[in-house]
């Protein structure tokens, strides 16, 4: 990957981690530059994700920063290699926004994804028909099919392996805002039931009578990135895109909110019974 195409989500993550390690070691940018025998601008570009780093240079910095844990070193070296990785969505060009590319990268690099949705169903749990209804209402008609194909491709992550786990909490009103005819609605409920039975998927429904602070009703996703030690980040959805939160206090706030949501939501078994009841109602109406 040429430097002109950076920063990417992975190069920013690597740079942020190297900056954190340098600061924790009590070192300045100039100390790192002296170790690599380069100028300070190169270190700044690495730490802001604007350029990658050679494996030899990375080893030098990790030694300088006192990183001795083998798993942590291996994880950072893998991330440095993956900065240049070409993903399946790389060829989509301008059809995919930068925010969506960032989200796809986080999702693909995660071992655990936890998502709360108050208004729509999580993308990985949507049927193709539901996706098309959502995108037709919200996107330019030329983007509808590429967006549907991209979301359908994302569902490959749910292949039943233990390498990727998905946990979602769905606010109950979202289940009653499914657009389209009754057949589409019933198909979506059946799909939720079937997907929720996968060993790596957990679905919980947040009932209407739960009282939580209004601030906790914003949609967000917590990503636990692969590697040791695992890194957690939070992604906030908004009308014009998304925002990544990496600072530990911010992530801790959303992790606490997640714990509150899962404690207040119906259990996975109760959620399945609720979905089963909805399927019956749709079949009888």
Automatic annotation (TrEMBL):
Domain HTH cro/C1-type: 18-72
Pfam families on file: DUF5753 (PF19054), HTH_31 (PF13560)
Gene Ontology MF annotations: DNA binding
Transmembrane stretches, start-end: none
Gene3D superfamilies linked to this entry: lambda repressor-like DNA-binding domains (1.10.260.40)
InterPro entries: Cro/C1-type_HTH, DUF5753, Lambda_DNA-bd_dom_sf
CDD domains per record: HTH_XRE (cd00093)
Protein name: Helix-turn-helix transcriptional regulator
Organism of provenance: Streptomyces tabacisoli
Species lineage: Bacteria, Bacillati, Actinomycetota, Actinomycetes, Kitasatosporales
């Amino acid at each position: 990957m040429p430097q002109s195409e950076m920063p990417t989500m992975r190069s920013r993550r690597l740079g942020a981690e190297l900056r954190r390690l340098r600061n924790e070691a009590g070192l300045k940018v100039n100390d790192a530059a002296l170790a690599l025998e380069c100028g300070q601008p190169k270190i700044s570009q690495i730490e802001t994700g604007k350029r990658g780093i050679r494996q030899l240079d990375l080893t030098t910095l990790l030694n300088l920063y006192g990183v001795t844990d083998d798993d942590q070193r291996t994880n950072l070296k893998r991330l440095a290699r993956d900065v240049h990785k070409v993903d399946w969505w790389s060829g989509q060009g301008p059809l995919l926004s930068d925010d969506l590319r960032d989200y796809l990268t986080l999702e693909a690099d995660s071992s655990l994804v936890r998502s709360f949705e108050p208004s729509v169903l999580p993308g990985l749990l949507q049927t193709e028909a539901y996706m098309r209804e959502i995108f037709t209402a919200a996107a330019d008609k030329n983007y509808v099919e590429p967006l549907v194909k991209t979301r359908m491709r994302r569902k490959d992550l749910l292949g039943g392996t233990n390498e990727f786990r998905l946990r979602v909490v769905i606010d109950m009103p979202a289940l009653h805002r499914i657009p389209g005819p009754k057949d589409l609605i019933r198909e979506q409920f059946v799909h939720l039931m079937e997907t929720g039975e996968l060993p790596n998927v957990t679905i919980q429904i947040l009932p209407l009578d739960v009282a939580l602070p209004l601030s906790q009703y914003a949609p967000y996703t917590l990503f636990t990135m692969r590697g040791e030690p695992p890194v957690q980040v939070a992604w906030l959805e908004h009308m014009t895109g998304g925002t990544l939160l990496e600072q530990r206090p911010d992530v801790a706030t959303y992790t606490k909110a997640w714990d509150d949501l899962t404690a207040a939501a119906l259990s996975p078994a109760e959620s399945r019974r609720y979905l089963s009841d909805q399927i019956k109602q749709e079949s009888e109406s």
